[in-house]
Design brief:
- The structure is a homodimer of 496-residue chains.
- Chain A has 496 residues and is of the alpha/beta class.
- Chain A is built from 15 helices and 15 strands.
- The termini of chain A are far apart.
- Chain A has 3 domains: 78 residues, Arc Repressor Mutant, subunit A, CATH 1.10.10.10; 118 residues, Aspartate Aminotransferase, domain 1 (Alpha-Beta Complex); 216 residues, Type I PLP-dependent aspartate aminotransferase-like (Major domain) (Aspartate Aminotransferase, domain 2, 3-Layer(aba) Sandwich).
- The longest helix of chain A is centred in the C-terminal third of the chain and has 28 residues.
- The first copy, chain A, has an 8-stranded mixed sheet with strand order 4-11-10-9-8-5-6-7, with helices on both faces. A 3-stranded antiparallel sheet of chain A has the order 12-13-15, with helices on one face. In chain A, strands 1-2 form a two-stranded antiparallel sheet.
- The radius of gyration of chain A is 29 Å and the shape is globular.
- In chain A, strand 6 and strand 7 form a beta hairpin.
- In chain A, 40% of the residues lie in helices and 14% in strands.
- At the A-B interface, helix 2, helix 5, helix 6, helix 7 and helix 8 of A face helix 2, helix 5, helix 6, helix 7 and helix 8 of B.
């Protein structure tokens, strides 16, 4: 008999039942060719004794093997490894001749890109200053899981035996109508809403629907780099307008519209990315004039509307008199702690109908389960409650960061407290080049961007977005403390 | 005092705790302007009496309201509606002047499309013949939910405070390497795998990376219509090759490659869509020759590999000697009962690196939680067990459908039993036009395609894919019974 005690290792701490562990291990041994087709397995009594288990556990494992077709039960003889297994054997992992180790034999297109600092997983004791994300530890994932579980257990959930609409779940779209009406004063119906994987897909879809190669697109300077890259990838020519404390220069937008046949304007009205400035109410009014006059298609990316501390949010362009020209984009991704990405897009119905066709070719549609879950959490007030609570929390964190920056970094940096959102735009004095600061900080356990990505399309800004929402009091203090140390040491080197 | 008993309706059967219901209702009344800023709410003792509740419940509700900033607690006076609420009020739902009711003021691109029959939700008693989906009732969603819940409860899950890679979760990609090695004999590493939202996104990404306007793409005739549309949308010119019982005509592929500068071949080796034929082993060998000779980029869409009944699957082209030219696409969407869409793509690493940039612009990346969940279910054998079990079940259903079609529909239809997959390609005699059959069947409670979408790019086929996997014995019998009735009645009309 084979040394089954050695071959079948059992982990009694594992979540998986012991009988399944045994069945899986047998399946692996069969697959690997250790147990050959036609081999008679030991009797359940014998194996139970060898493994120190109850006989019933071994019988259950054999039943599982038979139901999975790895083995056959022979009356009065026992259980035999199946003889008709598919002829798919694992190759050696050292196979020298993988066709994928060489490069591709074909040519392919090149895609514009920026280098972003990326950290997949923190080491214990490390801190990260991110671009402005929510605190995952606060995300309402327990409520999310509870709702999802309740949904899949409902019999009528299973009546949806088919693919749905590329516009997204009707239930979710109806909830979004309600949500956008009472939070943003939008006037719309479910035909005006499409759900997307996240705001980025909404941006891509809109751009792909509007742009042809060579079309002009107006963007801020600086601007959200993934939007810039997306428009460039689709062949657009970017026209940049300056951004100041009141947001993008609307007079400049008007001038460009008179000088060029401009196809689209991309605007971030709340907490412009990266600089966090908010487009003033006055400029909004003037921008609505420009939009109507030039029949300018506007992509309004309002990713940060739900987070406000210093004042109430200003209503989006989409709620104003824009003649059907504003395509409005938002997202729940941050609220859900990046676990589930979920965005939406508001636009005139005929435009969305055509866009749904493109969505279908790119992605068919969204996921049923998360869409229905989000709809339920919007309906029962969970999202609303969560937003209230996190606004309170992030407000405190913003204030704490402001104080820390003032007290500890003094005139080494420059910033304006943002009215809302999750990040402070922090510009470093040019004697502290961020490419060096970031390296030094990392060696001290603080991971941060070196600022390069924010300069895409403009000159180097020597600035980062300091995401404060995901760091608690202790972490903010520690992060600013490390920055203080780095800058002080650099200054000493500089002074020598 | 306001009639709170009428205003605050409580549902004791609801999942939501009573105190939250009360808090939400108060928040709504505040939002709607029924409770004005500055209004003093009734004392907790008084309200508890009116509503017939314990006083602690009302106190909890007031605490919730205060923590959400809807109200302020005044020492020794009670709880007051907040006076500093954001000035965002719901508009009337009858608002006549929505800028979205008019069409858009801007022009936009047109997207190629086909009309598909679509049924979002079945009425009780109705049956649907779908395109070939898994049985959602059998999907391992309980295991899925259990694993997801365990994941979000683990502290280290929250250490991923940042966006990850557009290639997908490394953990999932490692599991896919293992899975693809032992099920398909592929030889690859995690650098060769990208996760996608579903197979459709993998198709779109590949096509967008390879194609320029005017490029030639070879496809079968007929072919999966969403692939055709995707290539057309990207500006490709389609060259069609015939399909017979052994799959696409490989000689014809070779001839086209000699006559044109062909950029890409799209092939579905197992259970070609729509006709379900499998590309024979001999043609695969010859196709590998053609691929190497012409350095032809091949998009191998093997969406149905995991489901085989009559014989073992034939190894994919991707596991053969293709010189790095085969891009291999698969999916777990059907297995997961369409609740979560999850696909993958295998290709040479330098190609995937560039493709990750495009994915970033389209969609940033996948969802962390589902990707980690799928990785865990691959690792612990759940997916493997589920596939074994559903292969057994769908095998029985295929056999039952074959018998039903032979016994009940006789020479009114033509079909070949598929070797695997989830659908039988069913061609109706031309005296039964499917556009009429589908209408008649719907009136009898059987929803089915009228076959139009399968004819995209070819002549009308008067055929449908009869998805058998999602229907149990009773349902298959009922569906074929209705079809029998429809065809018999049509024949009588025809004979008159």
């Amino acid at each position: 008999m084979l040394p089954y005690k050695t071959l079948i290792a059992i982990d009694r701490e594992a979540r998986q039942p012991v009988y399944q562990q045994i069945a899986n291990r047998f399946a692996s041994l069969i697959r690997e060719g250790v147990l050959k087709p036609g081999l008679l397995l030991p009797g359940s009594r014998v194996l139970a004794l060898q493994l120190g288990l109850h006989r019933k556990t071994v019988v259950a494992a054999y039943d599982e093997l038979v139901s999975q077709d790895w083995a056959t039960a022979l009356p009065r003889k026992g259980v035999m490894v199946a003889t008709n297994l598919p002829d798919v054997k694992p190759r050696s992992f050292q196979a020298p001749a993988s066709p994928y180790t060489a490069g591709p034999g074909f040519s392919f297109n090149r895609i514009p890109s920026v280098v972003t600092s990326r950290y997949d997983r923190l080491q214990p004791g490390q801190l990260i200053i991110n671009d402005g994300f929510a605190d995952m530890r606060e995300a309402p994932l327990e409520a999310w899981m509870k709702e999802s579980r309740a949904l899949v257990r409902r019999p009528r959930y299973h009546q949806r035996l088919t693919y749905g609409s590329a516009m997204g779940s009707l239930h979710l779209r109806q909830q979004l109508v309600h949500y956008l009406t009472y939070t943003r004063g939008l006037s719309l119906s479910a035909d005006n809403v499409m759900t997307t994987r996240g705001a980025q897909m909404a941006i891509y879809l809109t751009a792909a629907m509007l742009l042809k190669k060579g079309d002009y697109v107006i963007v801020g300077s600086p601007n959200y780099f993934y939007a810039d890259l997306c428009f460039e990838q689709l062949g657009a020519r970017l026209l940049r307008v300056p951004t100041d404390a009141e947001g993008i220069d609307v007079e400049a937008v008007g001038r460009l519209c008179r000088a060029h046949k401009v196809k689209m304007l991309y605007v971030i009205p709340h907490h412009h990315h990266p600089t966090t400035v908010t487009l003033s109410a006055e400029r909004r009014m003037r921008l609505l004039d420009v939009i109507r006059t030039h029949r300018l298609a506007v992509l309004e990316d309002d990713y940060d509307y739900d987070y406000h501390y210093s004042s109430a949010p200003i209503l989006p362009l989409a709620s104003g008199d824009h003649g059907g020209n504003v395509i409005y984009v938002g997202s729940f991704t941050k609220l859900l702690g990046l676990s589930i990405r979920s965005g939406f897009l508001v636009a005139p119905a005929p435009f969305l109908e055509e866009m749904a066709r493109l969505r279908k070719l790119m992605d068919l549609q969204g996921d049923n389960l998360p869409e229905e879950t989000l709809a339920a959490l919007l309906a029962d007030g969970t999202i609303d409650r969560h937003l209230k609570k996190s606004n309170k929390l992030y407000h405190e964190r913003r204030d704490q960061l402001t104080q820390l920056l003032q007290n500890r970094l003094g005139d080494k940096v420059r910033f304006t407290e943002p009215a809302g959102g999750m990040a402070t735009w922090l510009t470093f004095h040019k004697r502290y080049p961020l490419t060096q600061v970031a390296v030094k900080a990392a060696s001290m356990g603080l991971l941060m961007s070196n600022g390069e990505q924010y300069g895409h399309g403009t000159t180097s800004l020597n600035a980062i977005r300091f995401g404060f929402a995901s760091l608690n009091n202790r972490e903010l203090t520690k992060a600013v403390g490390i920055l203080e140390k780095v800058l002080t040491q650099s200054a000493q080197r500089f002074d020598k």
